[in-house]
């Protein structure tokens, strides 16, 4: 009960504070110096969150369900939802709170990204884009043998990164699943691992490639290591979320026989998640092939390095040939993974 109230209050206070800060920016039109004053702005945001928390408590303590907040609608327990009378969405405060949040965020996004139809439809810019696309769609096949050799290197980079990541992510996923890691010590391990993996995943593979390029030198090895680290963090998260959604029936059945924790995981949980695991893994290999073309920006090897070389010289027919090779490989892998997933059903 207390957990539900905390989540509801924190969510509502954040939404109210966010909307209040947008309103302050629009009304006050702060200078760039004021916007960069993080300490002052953070204090204002915290004060706004405190006011939002009080507002959340006041609205949700009302006996009228129509004025309950979005946090209440999201986090209230099932028994409370079942006891409430159904109301049309347009008569509820939570629905209008959500609409306001989305509309304000969309308008702010338009402003921050400087969205402009005038620039998009500018005649000179469009003509330049046409010339570029003309080069891309007129590929120079003289570099095809070199592109094929580089895409083979890229595929093996992705394969090795995914293969080496699988066993580590598989083991970590069970330590990152909330339904398994129960108890004070287990919960601490769970929180530490989730935090570490979130931090690792937040660092893009491009940055990892820079780190490993300095560590082991420029080439496919640094690119493979970068993809492997990122794959471990991503797969462990996806695997653990699958573990958290398994049916409790087989687990209770295995536990009733006196099975140990390890036996319960192996015989009750692994059979339920193995097919989604394979599906996620194949998809991750697909992602790694595409990511390998990007880490070539920083010397990560593979066809990405070749792509950046020709792109930097504005040799668009050559770039078109490389893109065609990448597209064919990605399409072929997508078809192959679909066949594999279908065969495993």
Q: How is the secondary structure organized here?
A:
Elements: H1 2-28, H2 32-35, H3 38-60, H4 70-75, H5 78-83, H6 93-112, H7 117-120, H8 123-136, H9 144-175, H10 184-202, H11 205-216, H12 220-244, H13 248-255, H14 261-294, H15 303-312, H16 316-343
Helix pairs in contact: 1-3, 8-16, 9-12, 9-14, 9-16, 10-12, 11-12, 12-14, 13-14, 14-16, 15-16
Describe this structure as you would to a colleague.
The chain starts with a helix and ends with a helix. It folds into 2 domains: 2-115, no CATH class; 142-343, MetI-like (MetI-like fold). The model has no long low-confidence stretch (mean pLDDT 83). Helix 9 runs parallel beside helix 12 (220-244), helix 12 packs across helix 14 and helix 15 packs antiparallel against helix 16 (316-343). It is globular, with a radius of gyration of 26 Å. With 345 residues, it is mostly helical. The protein has helices spanning 2-28, 32-35, 38-60, 70-75, 78-83, 93-112, 117-120, 123-136, 144-175, 184-202, 205-216, 220-244, 248-255, 261-294, 303-312, 316-343. It is built from 16 helices and no strands.
